[in-house]
Amino acid sequence: MERRAKMIQALIHVILILVSITMLVPFLWMILTAFKSMSEATSVSPFVIFPSVWRTESFITVINNMDFFHLYLNTLLLIAGRVIAAVLTATLAGYAFGRLEFRGKNFMFSLILFQMMVPGQIFIIPQYLMVSKMGMLNTIFALVFPGLVTAFGTFLLRQAYMGLPRDLEEAARLDGCNIGQTFLFIMSPLTRSSMVALGIFTAVFAYKDLMWPLICNRDVMPLSAALAKMQGQYSSNYPQLMAASLLACIPMIVLYLIFQKQFIEGIATSGGKL
Amino acid sequence: MINKGTPRERNEFMWGWLFILPTMIGLIVLNIIPIFQTIYQSFFKTGDFGKGNIFIGLDNYVKLMGDAEVWQSVINTFKYAIVEVPFSIAIALVLAVLLNRKMMGVSAYRTIFFVTITRVIGGMQVFDLIFMVMDKNNPALYKTQSIVYLFYQNSFVENNKGYGSTIVVLLIAIIMVITIFQMIAQKKWVYYN
């Protein structure tokens, strides 16, 4: 029994190590390539793993050619705009769907579920035409626009509210809270972890969203679209591409370091990849 | 309607609608109306930037039926999903089981099933990978482009949003078939205690 447990333990570690390697190798490859010369990066010899000299030219060229200050700023504003709007609207709606009874609730909730079932591409052309008609193309607003509300987030928060005990609301009501106060002071603080999870999901999806930024904005670009554009221009200069990619990863690395625990919880409970 | 019911019910009605209103307005404007607009657009030939919308009936669908590029992209997308999904499931499942040790046996199989379907639907929508990896002039593009990539090309590069909409309708049809399969299979194979 003892031995069997140890075997399983060892097997789990082997699997985890293999999975970690497959995930880490591309990342390490990116870092190494960013410091290589062009000929080292494209060398077919399998023994050229480390750069002979750790060059920083690629970083300098990339920083000079791309306006990273504005790319970071645009990405930050895109993420902040979507996260604030999504968490705010989803928390309010999630509470109503999860805890209140009112006419029309079921129909409205079926619209939420319906939105989650259809592929997102179906919204894109009309959304583009809307932003275009508003004259808002090429603005931060255009980037944030499709993420102002979230059906998925509303669903997530509804589930969180449904899991809370009834007694809390009863107590709050007896103490004279109206529904708004009960929500604001009693119930919403208890779903903070779900709000953080939704915030993280929203941030990651906003950060890696490529098609919408490519469509709506030509100049006010977030990192994803700028990288894609650069890839089109210098498709064979791998060190520069990797240097730019590495710089583009920084916001997510910082976010991960801050919210490590919540990131892992989010993946562990949903089993999904981000 | 509002006058019926106890004061408490009326109260909940008011607060409930107040709370869901921002989400519902956003959802209807950003998502629900666009679904119908896209379907409507698929019956039009679109010129430059929405100007010159010409009603052409089912012509886009006739074109779609005979468009070898589209059907090749459907095949490409399925191939991609079939190869990609088992790997992503394996990793997701291993992580979920190892990080959450309570889940074993039946619930693991149930998860495999649901995650597979959602991942297949996710795989059907691959875009950024192909956009980044494939050069626009690469001769292999024909055999690698996905449905969504073709949608992007038609709608925003060639600016024929009518035909782009038709391609999205095809994507929805395929995803609907997968979803219906899931519902039937769920009834047959999955039992809830």
What global shape of chain A is seen? globular
The N- to C-terminal Cα distance of chain B equals 40 Å
Q: Class of the domain at 66-233 in chain A in CATH?
A: Mainly Alpha
Q: If you average the pLDDT of chain A, what whole number results?
A: 89
Q: Please give the radius of gyration of chain A in angstroms.
A: 23 Å
- N-to-C order of helices and strands of chain B: HEEHHHHHHH
Structural class of chain B: mainly alpha
What fraction of residues of chain A sit in β-strands? under 5%
Low-confidence stretches of chain A: none
Total DSSP helices of chain B: 8
Describe the structure.
The complex is a heterodimer of chains A (274) and B (193). Chain A is an all-alpha fold. Chain A has helices at residues 2-34, 38-41, 57-65, 68-99, 105-117, 121-133, 140-144, 151-162, 166-174, 179-187, 192-208, 211-216, 223-233, 238-258, 260-270. Chain A has a domain at 66-233: Orthogonal Bundle (MetI-like fold). Chain A has 15 helices and no strands. In chain A, helix 1 (2-34) crosses helix 14 (238-258). The longest helix of chain A has 33 residues, at 2-34. Chain B is mostly helical. Chain B folds into 2 domains: 1-41, no CATH class; 59-189, no CATH class. Chain B is 74% helix and 2% strand. Chain B has a two-stranded antiparallel ribbon with strand order 1-2. In chain B, strand 1 (44-45) and strand 2 form a beta hairpin. The chains are: A mainly alpha (274), B mainly alpha (193). At the A-B interface, helix 1, helix 4, helix 5, helix 6 and helix 10 of A face helix 1, helix 3, helix 4, helix 5 and helix 7 of B.
What order do the helices and strands come in, and which of them pair?
The complex is a heterodimer of chains A (274) and B (193).
Chain A: H1 2-34, H2 38-41, H3 57-65, H4 68-99, H5 105-117, H6 121-133, H7 140-144, H8 151-162, H9 166-174, H10 179-187, H11 192-208, H12 211-216, H13 223-233, H14 238-258, H15 260-270
Helix pairs in contact in A: 1-14, 3-14, 4-8, 4-11, 5-8, 9-10, 11-15, 13-14
Chain B: H1 7-41, E1 44-45, E2 54-55, H2 59-65, H3 68-99, H4 106-124, H5 128-133, H6 141-144, H7 147-157, H8 161-189
Antiparallel strand pairs in B: 1-2
Helix pairs in contact in B: 3-4, 4-8, 7-8
